[in-house]
Amino acid sequence: MRLSRDIVDHVAMLARLGLTEEERERMREQLSSILEHVSLIQELDTERIPPTAQVIALRNVWRPDEVRPSLPVEAVLANAPDAEDGMFKVNAVLEQS
Amino acid sequence: MSDDLTRLTVAEARNRLDRREISAVELLEAHLERILQLEPRIHAFITLTEDTARAQAADADQRIARGEAAPLTGIPVALKDVLCTVDAPTTAGSRILEGFRSPYDATVVRKLREQGAVFVGKANTDEFAMGSSTENSAYGPTRNPWDLERVPGGSSGGSAAAVAAGLAIVSLGSDTGGSIRQPAGFCGIVGLKPTYGRVSRFGLVAFASSLDQIGPFGRTVEDVAITLEVISGHDPNDSTSVDIPVPNYRAALTGEIRGVRIGVAAEYQVPGMDPEVERVVDHAIAELERLGAEIVPVSLPHTRYALATYYIIAPSEASANLARYDGVKYGLSLPAGTLLESYLQTRGRGFGPEVKRRIMLGTYALSAGYYDAYYVKAQKVRTLIKRDFDEAFAQVDVIAAPTSPTVAFRFGERTADPIQMYLSDVFTIPANMAGLPGIAVPCGFAHGLPVSLQFMGRPFDEATLFRVAHAYEQATTWHHAVPPLVASSPMRTHPSEAGSDGS
In this complex, which of A11, A80, A90 lies closest to B360 when CB atoms are compared? Predict the structure, then answer.
């Protein structure tokens, strides 16, 4: 099985990864070979086996819904590439009408 | 006892510090001299923090003078650069986090700080801890102190090389599929992946959240036990950290393993295993039997599916965790006409090839139409792997296995084929899948390079792992072996001639 170029493009867009032409071709090769390798598990019958998402027998962890101190806004924004008025700044995502 | 302060164990250093035979400043300066001497050749660190370390060492001396020393007060420690620190950059080995300063300390870092430990630097790692050689670090690879032409293992290769070369006494790493145990093995030191839930991951740059665990490296089992005791425990900031009392791990180091049942699984003999490594490991298991342990054959029939299961689950979780690197909140940000274009540019240029490969693989496995066939299927196989261990641990106290199928490999030897690289974790991945603790201890040499024996234990039973690993260590001399590079590089300063300030 070799992944189609359309699938690679689709997955790269889902993952928000800008890939070069060369990277897309290499990804087709390498992902196909890794997927072939991991397909080994398809030979197991898991019809009656429950999935394991985590291994410690934790149920939900609760805490009181109380206001607690959080990091100061300045500390959180200190690494921001762009900030304004105590907020992260990004390009407009909605068209102006 | 050695006059070289960079070969002291934690207990030896503690003893000499508390008796005021040496100061924490002297102990640090000896390590900084080693760093000056060997770091240009080894490259164990992404960031060195000599200045803050000197201030921490001076504080440690005051604390010792007041009679308030804790187990790690004044001990030089290296931190894998996936652990957030307020006073040094945290890069995770990636360009996308270059220059990032965390506004808070990881919980394990806070605990070490409270002890008065001295941080010498942020240790090199494969980008986002994805790799087995440090060749995926955006800041260049680390070299193995035993052979500079070979990898130190990974992803925590910097943390392992630093301790092996005497650039720190102990260090912290993280282990998602073997990233502590495999480099500990390649560098001839001890490394522990604790039980999932034993140590808080708050402030650890997340890779695969159902697998990641932070753990210590040291040159002896005792040093690893001391460090684990300090960093363990429940943390309200990490809901997956479990509220189970932290035992006195040193009390487990009795040297006595008569009657301990040690399982050996035939499934851990795989094609591609180096026969020399196999011979050394078999010899180590015979030694355990000589010490009075009972060697019991066990079966872990789903072992051969663990690697495939891992390479679905870990990339899936990684693809979700790494969605946060969007060029908006921190890190690299490449401006573009639209927000979408900025995401594509920033992530496309900021991540290296292995990280992109895993994000793609994980996104594919989680995407509509493939989710059941890959992700859910892998989670079901994970159940089978865990059940194998549950059944084995009904019969035995620990399971012994090789840590890796080979010794440290050469640079470039496995970079062309991702699957060849992934295979170096074939013996370490099962413990992560089942959430079990695993410890790697030196057990001899093959081709002149360290070979490592792994013990896996029941959940939260690190004490038995320490007991068995310590008894083996004390009956052998492997932990005294010093890399030739280190042995042939004499230290300029000796404690007797070093400055007397601070005492």
Answer: A11
Residue A9 lies inside a defined structural domain of this protein: yes
DSSP bridge pairs for B144:
B147
The pTM of this model reads: 0.96
B359 touches A: beta carbon within 8 Å = yes
- Domain ranges within chain B, ordered by starting residue: 5-236+250-303+382-487
Q: Domain count of chain A?
A: 1
pLDDT in tens, B110-152: 999 999 999 999 999 999 999 999 999 999 999 999 999 999 9
Strand partners, B147: B144
In three-state secondary structure terms, B308 is helix
User: Does residue B80 carry a catalytic annotation?
Assistant: yes
Instruction: Name the token pair of B457.
Output: 């234990």
Measured between beta carbons, the chain B residues lying within 8 angstroms of A84 are none
Cα dihedral B281, B450, B195, B418 sign: negative
Size of interface A-B (CB pairs under 8 A): 162
Domain that residue A26 falls in: 5-43
Supply φ then ψ for residue A53, to 5 degrees: -95, -30
C-alpha atoms less than 13 angstroms from C-alpha of B170 in its C-beta half-sphere:
33
CATH 3.90.1300.10 fits B5-236+250-303+382-487, yes or no: yes
- In this structure, the number of other CB atoms found within 10 A of the CB of residue B247 comes to 17
Consecutive H or E run containing B313? helix B306-321
Residue A39 lies inside a defined structural domain of this protein = yes
Residues of chain A neighbouring B377 (CB-CB closer than 8 A): 41-42, 46
